[in-house]
Amino acid sequence: MSRGNARSDRAELEADVIVVGSGAAGLMAAVEAADAGASVIVLESEPQTGGSTRLSGAYVALCETALQPGSKAEFLEDLLHSHHDDCQEDLSRLYVEEAPATWRRLDELGVHFVRTFQFAHMRKPWAHELSGEKMGGGAEIVTRLEEAAARLGVRILTSTKAMRLTTKDGRVTGILAERDGADVTFAARRGVILATGGFTRNDAMIRNFGRPGADRMLPLTGQGSRGDGLVMGMALGAGISYMTAGVAPTSPSDPATGKGVMVLYAGAIALNLSGNRFCRESDLYIDTCWAALAQKDGAFVQVYDHAMRTAYADTMMGKVLTGFEEIAAPTLGELAAKLAPHGFDEAGVLASVARYNDGVAKGADPDFGRTNLVGTSGERRPVAAGPFYAALCKAGTTHFNGGLTVDTGMRVRDVFGDPIPGLYAAGETTGGFHGAGYMSGTFVGMALIFGRVAGRQAAIG
Ligand SMILES: Cc1cc2nc3c(=O)[nH]c(=O)nc-3n(C[C@H](O)[C@H](O)[C@H](O)COP(=O)(O)OP(=O)(O)OC[C@H]3O[C@@H](n4cnc5c(N)ncnc54)[C@H](O)[C@@H]3O)c2cc1C
Question: What are the pocket residues of ligand 1 if the criterion is a CB atom closer than 6 Å to any ligand atom?
Answer without folding.
Answer: 20-26, 43-46, 50-53, 55-59, 138, 161-162, 195-197, 220-222, 224-226, 228, 260, 320, 398-399, 427-429, 441-445, 447
